[in-house]
Amino acid sequence: MTSNVLPRFGKVAIIDNVHAEVEIVEQLLTKHGIPYVYYDYNKLITDHEINKIEGIRLVFLDIRLEDGNEENKNIYSVLALTIESVIATNNGPYTVVLWTNEYHLKNEVEKFLLERLSDEDTTKPTYICALDKKDFHENPETLFGKISDELNKNRPLEFLTTLESMTMDTPIRLLKMLLSETGNGVDAIDINQLLMLLASVGSTDEINSVKATRNILTVIADLVKDSCLELTSSNDRISELARFMDIIKDFKSQNVPIEVKARINAALNVNMHGSENEKLPGKVYKTDQIEDLEAFDNSTFGKKGKHPISKNDKILVDTYELIKVDITPGCDYAQDKAFISTYVYGYLIHINKVEDKNGNKEWMNLEYNKKISEVRSVYFTPCFLVGEDLCMLFVNTKWIRFEKYETNNENFLFRLNDALTSDIRKNAADNIARVGIPSV
Q: What is the pLDDT of residue 401?
């Protein structure tokens, strides 16, 4: 049960000014094999070189970190500064457990922290609860049960924490599996032999250190992807996670603003932080170098696709940027053979905000693809955010060009993920390979 309640792999932090008061917590975490990091507050305030931690999911935080500090506002300020000192800005969701003999202060502390903490300096806690120290000194084995009861009040966070614990051990299991399947042990010679075997997978030519590394990473990436897919076929894991999905009955996707959907779509489908130099397909470029641009614009795709979109006399779309998407097979990049790249051409559209009756500007929640074109060979991506712009990509999967691969950082926009790139490639292949049906 404990592995379902608390995160593993060093995701627990304990902060107190009296180590003896948290020894009980440390002993229980150790007993159940859950790593943790302990911060002595007295040293924390004097050490200016503290490295902030990423990926913390649970923080045990003593309310009174400074003896003699009686003003509540001062007490809460100390807690806020402590969180800012330890938790990084890109930490992700986490729970703060207020470890205290003053349980009644919990609501005040929570209100103060959520108002005071800024995402520019740290990550705000997703959930804050409180546990009474006295209870655990009298009956320490109730700790995990109490925490479970508290975390059950925030089901989505518990779902994510449990899922993370399930997937974090994937690299460890992969290494064990590879060593086991090759009959090797775990000493340096055995691991070296394993790496050399992986480096030579799929290679018949002489390889150097760069090609060897690329081969190893390609094999590992495929294995990681396959191992993560096991999640969807494990009834035990699905049942374990399904316990947290009782919130689904109250969810209505149509009530979610288009901006929120677009942010999620961007996270799932678009890599905004990549670079043109990455040897991966899916790169999207802004371009004006298409030789037959006039023919492209005058095609059925151009005529039906590139036109202003309005509703109730309000212009929703009037900006179209010509783009090309690299759909070169991934294996060409993996084998360093992407000398000729395959591109499909299309448009990146920018969707305008419109003013409502109260004077507020917002995006309309519409199916924009149906307002642009319903031609079979037109592929639409979901709406996603590029910076603060709501955008959509649509390409003509009949308009395929083969070009010499050249880096072009100036016009590089972003990279689509593998699943979206593969879907565009499949759509293009379906158009190329259409077979006529004999008839009389």
A: 83
In the chain, list all ranges with CATH 3.40.50.2300.
Answer: 2-166
In this structure, are residues 95 and 125 in contact, taking their beta carbons and an 8 Å threshold? yes
C-alpha closest to that of 411 among 263, 275, 262: 275
In the chain, the N- to C-terminal Cα span, in Å, equals 69
Write the pLDDT tens digit of every residue in 284-320: 998 876 666 667 766 666 665 666 777 777 888 877 8
Angstrom distance (rounded) from CA 95 to CA 127: 5
User: Mutual orientation of helices 155-168 and 235-242 as an angle, nearest 10°?
Assistant: 150
Neighbouring C-alpha atoms within 13 Å toward the C-beta of 318: 9
3-state secondary structure 199-262: HCCCCCCCCCHHHHHHHHHHHHHHHHHHHHHHHHHCHHHHHHHHCCHHHHHHCCHHHCCHHHHH
Q: What are phi and psi of 321, to 5 degrees?
A: -105, 130
Sign of torsion, CA 251 253 255 260? Answer: positive
* CATH H-level superfamily of 2-166: Response regulator (3.40.50.2300)
pTM of the predicted model as reported, rounded to 2 decimal places: 0.66
CA distance 115 to 125: 11
13 pLDDT band, cuts 50/70/90, is: very high
Residue owning tokens 């003053």: 102
Q: Quick one: which of 358, 356, 397, 359 has its CA closest to 378?
A: 397
The secondary structure element, H or E, covering residue 196 is helix 188-199
The whole-angstrom distance between residue 207's C-alpha and the CA centroid of its chain comes to 34
